[in-house]
Amino acid sequence: AQTVTQSQPEMSVQEAETVTLSCTYDTSESDYYLFWYKQPPSRQMILVIRQEAYKQQNATENRFSVNFQKAAKSFSLKISDSQLGDAAMYFCAYRSAVKDMRFGAGTRLTVKP
Amino acid sequence: DTEVTQTPKHLVMGMTNKKSLKCEQHMGHRAMYWYKQKAKKPPELMFVYSYEKLSINESVPSRFSPECPNSSLLNLHLHALQPEDSALYLCASSPGLAAYEQYFGPGTRLTVT
């Protein structure tokens, strides 16, 4: 079974600083995709970043980047230059060609001005 | 257009009512999904449609009845719900069933009285 674990229920960061959210997963599959979704209080799930397991290069989207460690089954999200609008619940998710999306429990990020 | 729309935004219904949730996407996606999300929890998959056919039903009670009239529309018909069915109902779409990211709508906040 595929499980996704986010061990940090809550995180806090000062505006303009950097924060890293952790995610680990368990799978026996070799081909899969990993995602980070953001869900602000407005409640819409927004795709932040995606990583294909077959790619060694870590994905980057502007201030968001990941540290993908395939052997360790780790997929952390780094947010640089944090902004007030980054405050949200962040979900790590796993999906493969034969399995539907599996979400972690989420990490609530607070950004302090 | 990368938008998934959902109506209504909010819905309050009694346990004897019949109501429907609507979801629409115009991205040409061939897979559509219904999720249920309780407060401070990750989304839970309910149904998956692929090419307008029901692909997955995650053991959802029969008081929830999905319908996919065409490739752009997804409905969720509700009847004889229980108070514990109160939740945020999210619709999502993806290009196909393979390991693609899913695009979410803003959700319908359902309250069953």
Secondary structure class of chain B reads mainly beta
Q: How many beta-strand elements of chain A?
A: 12
Beta-strand residue percentage of chain B: over 45%
Q: What is the H/E string of chain B?
A: EEEEEEEEEEE
The rounded distance between the terminal residues' Cα atoms of chain A is: 41 Å
The largest β sheet of chain B comes out as: 7 strands, mixed
Q: Helicity level of chain B, as a percent range? A: under 10%
Please give the radius of gyration of chain B in angstroms: 13 Å
Helix content class of chain A:
under 10%
Average pLDDT of chain A: 94
List the helices and strands of chain A in order: EEEEEEEEEEEE
Task: Provide key terms for this protein.
heterodimer; A: 113 residues; mainly beta; 6-stranded mixed beta sheet; 4-stranded antiparallel beta sheet; 12 strands; B: 113 residues; 7-stranded mixed beta sheet; 11 strands
Question: Could you explain how this protein is built, in words?
Answer:
The complex is a heterodimer of chains A (113) and B (113). With 113 residues, chain A is an all-beta fold. Chain A has no helices and twelve strands. The model of chain A has no long low-confidence stretch (mean pLDDT 94). Chain B has 113 residues and is an all-beta fold. Helix content of chain B is 0%, strand content 57%. In chain B, strands 2, 4, 5, 6, 9, 10 and 11 form a seven-stranded mixed β-sheet that branches. Chain B has a four-stranded antiparallel β-sheet with strand order 1-3-8-7, with no helix packed on it. The model of chain B has no long low-confidence stretch (mean pLDDT 92). Chains A and B meet through strand 5, strand 6 and strand 10 of A and strand 9 and strand 10 of B.
